[in-house]
Amino acid sequence: MKLVSLIIGLITLIISDAEGQTSVASPHKPFPVFDATLYSGKPDLSMHGLQPITLVYAGSFGSHWHKESDHLPEPESVKAIARQAEERGYPVVIDIEHWILKGTHKSITASLQKYLTVLQWFKESGPSLKVGYYGIPPIRDYWRAIKDKASQDYRAWKEDNNKLSPLTSAVDIYYPSLYTFYLDRAAWKRYAIAQIEEAKRFAKGKPTYVFLWPQFHDSNRMLGGRYLPEDYWQLELDIARQYADGIIIWGGWDIKTNRPAKWDEEAAWWRKTKEFVLTLP
Fold it and tell me: Tens digits of per-residue pLDDT, 116-130?
């Protein structure tokens, strides 16, 4: 019986999807779902199995430094936030998005040095923390990521990701962003799998937790802010479960009023999320 169980377990580890891609998954491995939503009036979601996470926005290090692309925050501001985060003990996402990682070798190197410096300051004051950056690595590039793997664009995207090697080796957790830009679900699936596979290419056993948002990204003028159809959201949860190591759910910010949106206990995305979490080990 032990041999049979072992064989069955090995079989379940290898899952091939309809597009011929292979991923490693285990139905018994813990799969955390983290709450990073910003809703007002939100209840404690831990009673439904969601876990807390520390999301540190650029403005947390000071209100003006990030308005100049070549500036670093004050070291003591970073270290103070790190000490607070270590007291909480949750995984940390640093959200700095204005340092460009595409372009000339000189500009990429300068940005990487800034990312590495902030990470070093953070870990000096919070040495027990597991820390990574929102959305990088890999570089979030929807159009190149959905191309055929043999295409020049796809290979160029991978080469651009290779240039981030100092950062890929320094972070403890990978946080790819898999937000939804368009109605095309098949394209979103290709995009999501490609982003996760790129993260795992560098991860070498480090966890890959993906950011999902139950609304369309606000860069889409027609759809931005609308909630995904519930079966689309279900697809995203399922793909993340199959390919990644965990999920961070973001959202709850009203882009029209620039304020937190009101929590809706009956929202379709939340109902699907609760059902999804119940299926996890």
Answer: 999 999 999 999 999
